[in-house]
Write a structure and sequence with these properties.
Number of helices: 1
Helix content: 10-25%
Largest sheet: 2 strands, antiparallel
Distance between the termini: 58 Å
Radius of gyration: 15 Å
Strand content: 5-15%
Oligomer: single chain
CATH class of the domain at 16-44: Few Secondary Structures
Length: 53
């Protein structure tokens, strides 16, 4: 009974996952970043984002 795969999803939560850690929670999709908020905070300075107060 092997060989049956679920269909590939085109929308929904499972499609948008973090490129770095793979989580589906808190993903930033704007500008096609696809990083979760935790990973984005770590690598944002390397990407050129600056934190203003």
């Amino acid at each position: 009974m092997g060989g049956i795969k679920p269909k590939e999803r085109k929308f929904g939560k499972i499609v948008s996952k973090c490129k770095r850690c793979g989580t589906t929670k808190g993903v930033i999709k704007k500008y096609n970043l696809y990083y979760c908020r935790r990973c984005f905070r770590e690598i944002a300075p390397l990407m050129g984002f600056k934190k203003y107060e």
